[in-house]
Design goal:
Elements: H1 2-13, E1 16-17, E2 23-24, E3 30-31, H2 42-58, E4 64-65
Parallel strand pairs: 3-4
Antiparallel strand pairs: 1-2
Length: 72
């Protein structure tokens, strides 16, 4: 979660300078999942993270979701 928070923060506070001189301010939303014993099937962990990503996106820009029961 700490890494995910840092990614969101650094993306938010560091705009991207475009070749034409314009600046793009972007944010990211992240879904986080892990396997308690680190031996779970990759596909299952990936599916959980993907599902949580969609929850984060539904909650708006610049969001994290690491909980299946999250609504905000």
């Amino acid at each position: 979660m700490d890494v995910a928070h840092r990614i969101c923060e650094q993306t938010r506070i560091n705009p991207i300078k475009l070749p034409d001189g314009d600046v793009a301010h972007i944010t990211v939303s992240i879904g986080v999942a892990d396997s308690p014993d680190s031996k779970g099937p990759y596909e299952k962990i990936y599916a959980k993270a993907d599902s949580r990503l969609y929850v984060a996106k539904q909650n708006g820009r610049d969001q994290l979701c690491a909980d299946d029961n999250a609504t905000e």
